[in-house]
UniProtKB/TrEMBL annotation:
Residues 64-138 form the FMN-binding domain. It comes from Candidatus Faecalibacterium faecigallinarum. GO terms for molecular function: FMN binding; steroid dehydrogenase activity, acting on the CH-CH group of donors. It catalyses: dihydrourocanate + A = urocanate + AH2. GO terms for cellular component: membrane. Keywords: FAD, Flavoprotein, Oxidoreductase, Signal. It holds the Pfam family FAD_binding_2. The keyword Transmembrane helix does not apply. It comes from the Bacteria. This is Urocanate reductase. Its EC number is 1.3.99.33.
Length: 679
């Protein structure tokens, strides 16, 4: 942690004023990295007549993948005479190994603009930033030592709250409510606050609103009533969610969503279905929303989907519509503005926050008289947090569903301010992480990724992976009832070699998929014409789908050998016997979900979990107020979205589609109502 001293700041303030030189850290509510620099020896003063530099040795630092990169440069009056590049804390085979080549490039370039080293992009960029600082100092330019906003590391995912000197805060905003994050929760909160004419600011570290999650779950919405859907047994639903969470959720928090999601939908629909948009609401209902009668899910009355609605066919995503809506009412999103730390008074009330402009690095104090709403997302893009907080989910994952940008900075800022993090991980895992034979689940080294790690799979959404075809482990053994929720196969693979499994089917897959009648997003395989066919062809060409004319040939292509091959062939024969009998005596899979494997060509692939997001968050009250370690509410601090807790524990119940996003939107509105005194 670095602190800008007031004395040091004032010493250079006159030179820096009006020159655009400011604290240059890149901060965010979901990621944080920055440059920090200072002179380490002679060089104070100005460039002599006829000279280019002030002779001396200067040091610059910048955040690399997993460490602070340091560059030390020695200057004569006209040239660089020596360079030392220290990347020893970076990934050994990538960033650390690039030090000599980067040093040579700096010596030859005569500037900080170098090509860098392929495969070590982040480290190369950090070296260039550090070198730029050295050049600035050697030219007598004012350099402000930056606050190093903590990115965490493998030994300390939380890090320490940054200490930001008052002199570094060059701007102040006064408002009633601050919303942090322009994603699903933040934009819904902003639209509601704008409709009510409230005094608020919404900040977002990036340059645009975040991707919209279209599908959201509601209970007894006006759309459901319009479609004639019978009312939900709310007590039964509450009990079922609690059962899915192992009793670890706060049922009062769950009830907030159950009781208030219908009003949330009315608000959303009131904007999206009105001029100038006039979008049509889609509601999953009837037979499409029903599991086959012989499935355990149907028999135990698990409800899917929970009246899931969406506007996915609309011209513009919901978050873009909300942005246009608030702008039409005279508000705007403050882009390029990231959370640095929360502020509180002597009584522990959150009074606002300090933000940082991510373009020029200057700090902004935002005073919020009525409260702060954090909607910054989870930590799926932060390997440090994933490995420490969700070791099981990490170990069974082969790919990410999308490119996760959320690094958990909002969660960490809340913890620094005294908030309590739920004790148990709750990842959203899809059984769709397609990988090549022989690839294990879990992180591998990646020089271009945050933390120097990434999951090995390149395909995060192989949708047919959610179909209940035969699944076997690396020894060719069947190990589960395949007709279960999305995350069950992934969790079950924790007990299997390599934490991966193979899925097998024959040429009659289209008939099987139609009979399986899976629902939720796995239904895409069923009702999008040619989707599975085209994916089979594409991924076969990429070596990720194996196709063969015989089971023996398929076994070879899948990597089974020796006794494992014999076991695999015997497992397929046994599975065909179970299909013929229309009774799964081994694992109890419903007859409607069994399939024969007799018609060539035969197909096989290897799968692990595909990580969508993390749902382990800050514990909250039924009013969406953050709680401290004593489970007492923290005045002035509210949370929604993937970074809010007290709801999902251990898993996301995928038989209740849209629940996570429905909760996000419902809690966003609830928090605004609470802060503004509208309830």
């Amino acid at each position: 942690m670095n602190k800008i001293s007031r004395k040091g700041f004032l010493k250079i303030a006159a030179a820096a004023a009006m020159s655009g030189v400011t604290a240059g850290a890149l901060a965010a509510c979901e990621s944080a990295s920055s440059a920090a620099s200072s002179a380490v020896s002679s060089g104070a003063g100005s460039v002599a007549a006829g000279a280019t530099y002030i002779p001396g040795t200067y040091e610059g630092t910048a955040q690399g993948i997993s460490s602070t990169v340091k560059v030390t440069m020695t200057f004569s009056e006209t040239a660089v005479t020596d360079v030392v590049v220290d990347t020893s804390g970076e990934t050994a085979s990538y960033g650390a190994a690039a030090a000599d080549e980067l040093r040579q490039q700096l010596l030859e370039a005569g500037s900080a603009e170098i090509d860098g080293v392929s495969g070590s992009t982040i480290t190369s960029d950090a070296v260039m930033k550090a070198a730029q600082s050295c050049y600035a100092q050697a030219k007598g330019e004012a350099v402000v030592t930056s606050v190093q906003l903590p990115s965490g590391d493998e030994n300390d995912w939380l890090g320490t709250e940054p200490d930001i000197d008052e002199a570094a805060i060059t701007e102040t905003w006064d408002t009633d409510i601050v919303i942090v994050g322009a994603g699903n929760g933040g934009m819904c909160a902003a639209a509601y606050a704008a409709q009510k004419g409230l005094n608020f600011r919404i900040i977002e570290q990036n340059s645009a609103v975040m991707e919209t999650r279209h599908w959201y779950g509601t209970i007894d919405s006006s759309e459901a009533q319009k479609q004639g859907v019978p009312p939900v047994d709310r007590a039964e639903l509450l009990s079922e969610i609690s059962r899915s969470m192992g009793g670890r959720c706060d049922q009062r928090v769950v009830k907030t969503w159950i009781d208030e999601s219908a009003a949330m939908h009315d608000f959303v629909a009131g904007i999206l279905e009105s001029a100038p948009y006039n979008y049509t609401c889609n509601l999953t209902l009837g037979d499409e929303a029903k599991w086959p009668d012989d499935t355990q899910i149907s028999q135990t009355k698990l409800m899917f989907p929970v009246q899931q609605v969406d506007y996915s066919s609309a011209e513009k995503p919901r978050n873009v519509v909300f942005q246009e809506y608030i702008e039409s009412l005279g508000y705007a999103v403050d882009f390029h503005t990231g959370l640095a730390k929360l502020e509180k008074d002597g009584d522990g009330r959150i009074t606002g926050l300090i933000a940082q402009n991510t373009e020029d690095g200057h700090f902004i104090r935002i005073n919020a008289s009525q409260g702060v709403l954090l909607a910054c997302g989870g930590y799926a893009g932060n390997p440090y947090m994933m490995e420490k907080l969700d070791p099981l989910g990490t170990s069974v994952t082969t790919a990410c569903s999308y490119a996760p940008a959320d690094k958990g900075y909002g969660i960490r800022a809340a913890i620094w301010a005294g908030a309590h993090l739920d004790a148990e991980a709750a990842p959203v895992l899809f059984d769709r992480g397609l990988v090549a034979p022989g690839v294990d689940s879990g992180y591998v080294e990646s020089a271009s990724s945050f933390g120097g790690k990434a999951f090995p799979g390149t395909v995060g959404q192989y949708n047919p992976g959610s179909q209940p075809f035969l699944k076997v482990n690396r020894h060719g053994e069947r190990f589960m009832n395949e007709s279960q929720e999305y995350d069950n196969a992934s969790h079950a693979s924790f007990q299997q070699p390599g934490h991966v499994y193979a899925m097998i089917h024959d040429a009659n897959f289209r008939e099987d998929v139609d009979r399986f009648h899976t629902i939720g997003c796995s239904a895409l395989t069923r009702y999008i014409p040619g989707m599975m066919e085209s994916q089979l062809e594409q991924y076969e060409a990429e070596g990720l789908i194996m196709k063969a004319d015989t089971i023996e040939e398929l076994a070879d292509k899948m990597g089974f050998a020796g006794a494992d091959k014999d076991t695999f062939i015997a497992t397929v024969e046994r599975y065909n016997e179970l299909y013929d009998a229309q009774k799964d005596e081994d694992f109890g899979k419903p007859a409607s979900r069994l399939s024969a494997i007799r018609t060539a060509p035969f197909y096989g692939c290897w799968l692990g979990a595909s990580l969508l997001c993390s749902l382990q968050g800050i514990s909250i009250t039924p009013n969406c107020q953050a709680k401290d370690d004593r489970n007492e509410p923290i005045p002035g601090l509210y949370v929604t979205g993937d970074m809010s807790g007290s709801f999902f524990q251990n898993n996301y119940p995928c038989v209740m589609g849209g629940t996570a996003c429905g909760r996000t939107l419902t809690f966003a509105i609830k928090a605004i109502k609470q802060m503004a005194g509208l309830e």
